[in-house]
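Our platform keeps sequence and structure together, in a single record for each protein. Because each token names a local backbone shape, the row as a whole describes the fold. One such record is reproduced below, unchanged from the form in which we store it:
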Amino acid sequence: MTHKLENRSIMVTGGAGFIGSHLVDRLIQEKPSNLVVVDNFFLGKESNLEDAKSNYPALKILRQDAKDYEAMKHIMRDENVQVVFNLAVTPLPASLTRPRWVYEENMAIVLCLLELIRGHDFDTLIHFSSSEVYGTSIYAPMDEDHPLNGPTPYAVSKAAGDKLILSYCRIFGIDAAILRPFNNYGPRQNEGSYAGVIPLTIKRILSGEPPIVYGDGKQTRDYLYVTETADAAVKVYNCTKTRGRVLNVGSGRETSINSVVQLIAQQLNCNKPIVCQEPRPGDVKRHIASIFLAEELIDFCPKVGMNEGLRTTVEWYEHQCENRLPMRE
């Protein structure tokens, strides 16, 4: 069986963030009857939704914490929400300085949405997990049955959230599925306080500084261009065989941090030597996704290669810099 998002009332929590805003862009193509973004703007930016507002003038953007049960219940009823894509999250780096807060925030968001769907306040939950739940690869590629050995409080909060959702599927029969994205990159990725290596490297080079690598740079990641993840999320909703399951969403290819930094430096004509700094706490050594299940269930087939994706990403940040747009912290 398949479902369609056309004429559905959809909510995207965390929809003003990096992946969330690209998902909003993608959902507009499905012609929903109503589209609501809920975001507390901890990392999200309203500027991320400028294209979406132009293409879907009826878009509603609500500054709201997704863990507030009563507030979310009112929004669900007022907007007649049927489908929720949950990307609301407190990010990994914050868990290294405020572990209890990050764990409690992330769990509270999941619990709020689960109790709302259990109470029939909406119909379907598509939840975004994280490849961080796996920790360093024990075997490769990493399938959905790989042990959940994530070392950080953030990773543990995401793993616990996944298990809680699956328990609600089994015990209460809720309609839910889980995406487990690997390392997304692309335009709009936060380059401020909680930046990933790609936006951080671009920002440093554009500012005239040398690129930085933490540790020896031999750590590997599975990088996926962000629009591929947004497209996968729509396909996960459409395919009812995904319900009660977790699907990895990645490229199925392994790339070292050194390689990524060198590619960015080449595209920006930067000849400055890479600066090596101490490894970051909780940094995983190896990540590569098995995407067999996503290929089987949703016909997932990434099309944007690393060179093409990085070129588009670098050009976007260069445009931001050329137009003297403020770097978003």
User: Anything to note?
Assistant: The first strand starts at residue 9 and ends at 13. The radius of gyration is 19 Å. The chain has a mean pLDDT of 94. Residues 99-118 form the longest helix (20 residues).
